[in-house]
Each structure stands twice: as C-alpha cells, then as structure tokens.
Write a structure and sequence with these properties.
Layout lengths: L9 H13 L11 H9 L14 E5 L10 E4 L8 E2 L14 E3 L7 E10 L8 E8 L9 E7 L2 E5 H4 L7 E6 L7 E10 L5 E9 L22 E2 L7 E5 L26 E7 L4 E8 L6 E6 L5 H4 E5 L5 E6 L4 E9 L5 E5 L20
Parallel strand pairs: 12-14
Antiparallel strand pairs: 1-11, 2-5, 3-4, 4-11, 5-10, 6-9, 6-11, 7-8, 7-10, 13-20, 14-19, 15-18, 15-20, 16-17, 16-19
Length: about 375
C-alpha cells in the first residue's frame, strides 16, 4: 500500500484512476507514484487555463467531458488496458480536473491509440501541435513499451527520446507546417506489454504564438566516439554521468550475437583510453540512484561495435568488464543502457600506468 502524504492533485488523480485498475497485480515497482508529485513541483511551470493568449487556436482538448471526447477515435486491442479518462473531481496543476491515461498490462499486449482528425492550415493558425504528457522514463519497464505521436501513421514524436523526466508533466511541441493544406489523423499511441502508466492532457493545435518552443539542448561532446573523453588525460578513475543528456548512437550488436549477449537501445556516452599491447583494463558501472538496465562494452571501432568488441557485460547491475589489449592503440569504452537513461557511476578498478599520463586526483569536468 503506497503512502500518500501530499494534497491530492490532478496528477495523483490520473495515476490513481489507472493504478486502481492495476492495483491488484503484484508488480514490484522500484519507484513510488509519490515521486510523480514531487518531481512535478520542481519541473517547470504548471499549465493553466490562464496561459498567455495565442493568436489562433484550431483545437483544444482537456478531456473535461470525463470520457474519450466526441470526434476522437479509440483504437483498442486490450479492452481492460486502453486509453480512458480519469473521473477525478479535484483540480490541480494542470488544466481542468481530468486527463487521459492508459495503464499497463503485465502479460497481454497493448496497442492502444486515441486519434483525432485535423485540417492543417498554416495561414489560418493551425501549424503547431502541443500537449502535456508524463510517464515512466528510466525504470526497467519503460523500455517495454513505446509512447509515440503519429501523423497519418508516421511517428513524429517519441516520448522516451524527448524526456529526461520521471513522472513529471512536461509540454511537448510538434511542427505541423509540413502538412499545410492536408487533413491528417493525429494519434497518441501506447504499444507494448508490461510497461507502465502514461498520461496525457491539454492537447492543442494552434499557431504557436505566445509559446517559446524549446529546442533540445546540444548533446555533450562525448555523445559520439569522435568526441570521446580521454580517461587518462582527465585522470578519471571514478566519475558520474547522466545518460539522459545523451542520444542512442551505439549498440554492442544484436541479441545473441553481441559481446554482451543483448542489444542496447538506451542512451550512451563514449570514453577512450590508449593502451599498449598486453596492458589490462578493468571497469565497472552501476546506477547512481534509481534502477537503470545498463550495458557496458569496449570496442576498437565504434562504427562496427559488434565485430570489434573486446569485452561486454549486460548481466545485471553492476556491469563489469576486463580485457587485455591485443595491440597498442586506442580503445573505446561505451557506457550504455539496454533501455532508457539515468545517472550512472563508473569505476575504473585497475587503471593502467602510463609513463606520460598521471592517474592522480579526479579532475572535475562538466558533462
């Protein structure tokens, strides 16, 4: 039984509506839904019906009717776990007293959509789709499902790639300008099995006036191997990084054939070390705080990781690898995740002595 110590808000109401359905199932969650509220308090401004006026609004849907709205279509494959609307009566940080949600099913596949048809007319002020969304981002179940937005069946937004938050309402934007003059179907899709709760509110199509549409922050330099951080140069023996700042660029290969035994679809960061022939290298990684399903491997060619992988581990936290350099040269360490992202602590247990470099005190660098 989870303990609620804060005043009920619409976020909790949306969660409670979905988890009441799933509450009889004994899934061991490593997060508590209370974190949804705690994070939301510190994650950006709350939505309000008194937001700045916009120049033109073609559609606004806050799900205040208490059911899937008229004009919207539900695509249902799992009737017991499909899109619905909460029956909460309290108002909170978001618009109105209702939101749309979809709960998880432990064993049965879900491919659930809610869709609406929209004519895009840029000159008339219909060019930007915006919506508020929240859900699981960095726990072990987030990788089991995909939460996307589609226009005429083509994915234009992927929740996992767009957020670094865990159960915190965020506002997202999709540029619809490319569909000017077309009538399109816009769909919110939840697809997979044994995932986690997902919520949606305040869906708007307008001209974007009054909103500062945020650009994604640039990825760190060591997002790619071309910018890999030199472990010796930085004297790094123990360091922490946030994989949520990185993109998914690399994988140890395909399931069963990779040096970890698995693929890796989560975010990844790159480091490098110059080793002499016969030098040994040992390194471990583990989640800094909440659970993340990690992957760790070392390669000589990032563009062909599966073929050049020397050692890899995806056996369960912590992951550790050790190898002896077959030749003198650069070796690349990929700190990766099987799915999702989060904060990771990396420990180099047996740093290699190098007559030209010092493994002294850890230098503080921004990443």
């Amino acid at each position: 039984m989870k303990r609620w110590t804060t005043t009920l808000t619409i976020l909790l109401a949306c969660l409670a509506a979905a988890t009441a359905i799933a509450g009889q199932e004994s899934k061991d969650r490593r997060h508590e839904l209370k974190s949804f509220l705690d994070l939301n308090r510190t994650h950006g401004p709350a939505f309000s019906s008194r937001s700045p006026l916009i120049g033109s609004r073609s559609l606004f849907e806050g799900f205040e009717g208490g059911a899937i709205p008229a004009g919207w279509t539900a695509g249902v494959t799992n009737p017991s776990r499909t899109w619905s609307v909460s029956d909460a009566t309290s108002t909170g940080a978001l618009e109105g007293g209702y939101c749309a949600y979809v709960g998880y099913d432990l064993t049965n596949f879900q491919d659930e959509t809610i869709s609406f048809v929209q004519t895009i007319d840029v000159s008339a002020g219909s060019s930007v789709l915006s919506f508020w969304m929240a859900g699981s981002r960095s726990d072990s179940w987030s990788g089991n499902v995909a939460e996307t937005v589609e226009v005429d069946g083509v994915i234009v937004f992927d929740f996992d790639g767009a957020t670094a938050a865990q159960y915190a309402w965020e506002k997202f934007f999709v540029d619809l300008g490319a569909y000017d003059g077309q009538t399109v179907t816009i769909s919110f899709r939840y697809r997979g099995v044994d995932g986690d709760l997902h919520v949606l509110d305040a869906v708007t199509v307008d001209d974007g006036t009054g909103y500062d549409v945020p650009l994604p922050p640039p990825a760190p330099a060591n997002d790619l191997c071309a910018g890999a951080i030199d472990l010796q140069e930085q004297s790094l023996t123990v360091f922490e990084l946030d994989l949520c700042l990185y993109a998914d660029d690399y994988s140890p290969g395909v399931y069963g054939a990779s040096c970890t035994g698995w693929g890796a679809g989560g975010s990844d960061a790159t480091y490098k070390i110059h080793l002499g022939q016969g030098d040994s290298f040992t390194v471990c990684e583990a989640p800094t705080a909440e659970y993340i399903d990690l992957s760790l491997y070392a390669v000589t060619d990032c563009a062909d990781a599966q073929a050049t992988c020397l050692a890899g581990d995806d056996s369960g936290n912590p992951e550790c690898i050790s190898f002896v350099a077959p030749a003198s040269g650069w070796y690349y360490l990929i700190v990766d995740a099987y799915s999702g992202c989060g904060r990771v602590t990396v420990t180099i247990d047996s740093p290699v002595a190098n007559e030209n470099e010092s493994w002294g005190s850890v230098k503080a660098i921004y990443r």
